[in-house]
Amino acid sequence: MSVVGMTIVADGSPTRERSIGNRWLRLTRPVLGLLLPVLLAAAWEFIVRMGWASGRLAPPPSVIFAEFVELARTGDLQSNTLVTLARVAAGFALGVTTATIIGAAAGYSPMVRRLLDPSLQALRAIPSIAWVPLFVLWLGIFEASKVTLIAVGVFFPVYLGLMGAIQSVDRKLVEVGRAFRLSDVAMVWRILLPAVLPAYVISLRSGLGLGWMFVVAAEIMGASQGLGYLLVDGQQLGKPAEIVAAIVAFAILGKATDWLIALAAAPFLRWEDVVRQD
Amino acid sequence: MLSLERVSKIYPNGVHALGGVSLEVELGEIVAVIGGSGCGKSTLLRAISGLDPASEGAVVLDGERITAPHEKIGIIFQEPRLLPWLKVADNVGFGLGDRPKPERAQRVTAALARVGLADKAAVWPRELSGGQAQRVAIARALVPRPEVLLLDEPFSALDAFTRSDLQDHLLDLWTDAKPTLVLVTHDVDEAIVLADRVMVMCPRPGRIFDEIDVKLPRPRDRQSAAFDFVKRRVLVALDRSLNRPATTVDGETKATAGAALWW
Ligand SMILES: Nc1ncnc2c1ncn2[C@@H]1O[C@H](COP(=O)(O)OP(=O)(O)OP(=O)(O)O)[C@@H](O)[C@H]1O
Ligand SMILES: [Mg+2]
After folding, report:
1. What is the CATH number of the domain that holds B137?
2. How many Å lie between the centroid of ligand 1 and the Cα of residue B16?
3. Fewer C-beta within 10 Å: chain A N or C terminus?
């Protein structure tokens, strides 16, 4: 990307031309990333159309698209998406809230950290899916156990991220706050919070990723609704197109929610001195 | 008036960093503190600022004992330490949080103009050069109009040219409100260009070894013979403070040898 950018910048020396070049690049950059999947999909479509492969177990894009439309027409897509979204939202909210409170306390106070962190680290060593039978026994087979599992998945990256971020706040900047006699509240508000925010946002995003992972696990293991249920349903009824349609829906939702967090945080992180990655 | 009464500092790890420093600084006076590395200069400055109070003795400003950061005392560190998430103007106004907004804006604008960075108000700190960032830090420290300004090697991270530029600039700013300046430095020239008095410290534990008055009119010519004379005195005192025998009698070689030795 940078090579292309540099060539264009070098060619168009006037700034106007350069900005046009940049805009063109910005528009084409996502398109470049789409090139490979689109090519592969088109190739597969072509192969099935030509009758070189049956496409029964690996349906071509047109069949998946048709399945998508069909699911949307019957309303199955919307209702299952809503159920899954609600589970992720509830689990994410629960996980983030507890992780933020405990992570902040453990990052701020060495006492709390010594008290809680060893236990939490021990719990973290358990693969979260292992909790499922216990959660089902405790909370039943319905929403509560699923939401709890998602919350557990979300909890750890957010807890670790926030605690680590608070501990690694630049002591020199805290000292600036002290030199200007900030109160404890002002210190948190004006120094700690902004200093911690970039790492916190990253931890939220990885927490959300895990949330999506665990909703699939929870729904595969027992649900009568949700996109994960569509996966199981498609498997049991031998409908690969339904499975792939659900996978595509997961991909879109995962990416969209991640993008929403990034978008919401962007105005507060404009100061960051990092090389733009997109 | 700022006075230090037998200020001692023993760090929790047992290091005896200051062994009873006494010093009186008049309002508006500029005092430079110079000495070998590790002799307790930063410790002394942090004790005065209240960031890291003395373990024994007292720092008294206008009859008030300083044990915590005080509104009459500003400090400038070796690094600018600007808050990266605040625009330059908000950094400068950081110490004015309790003032009404219009007053704050007006004082910030004036201070930025005073350090020659009026056009950088809406810029992020990362977009500043090292010298510009340190000027913003100076503006930030001066905006609350401190009575005492402490500076810990404020220009040591800058190139020689920017450094002498900012030294002149600091003097210029000082004439506005004439705060008391206590300046820790490694640079003999800097000490003599700026200070009314140069305190030479010696290590283990940190004490004041010698005191040299600089009675030269300002602005001071770094090239003049009188400047050189004072410089030689400071360098000799420095060598003595570190128990180094004066190797050469010849003034010129002496000066450079001293500078090279203890830097
Ligand atoms: N936070 C600390 N804890 C323990 N010992 C310290 C601490 N800070 C400094 N010291 C010790 O105190 C002594 C004086 O340190 P100080 O930083 O005041 O020296 P300095 O004169 O400023 O040195 P330099 O010119 O290198 O900045 C040194 O021996 C140092 O190791
Ligand atoms: Mg120091």
Report:
1. 3.40.50.300
2. 10
3. C
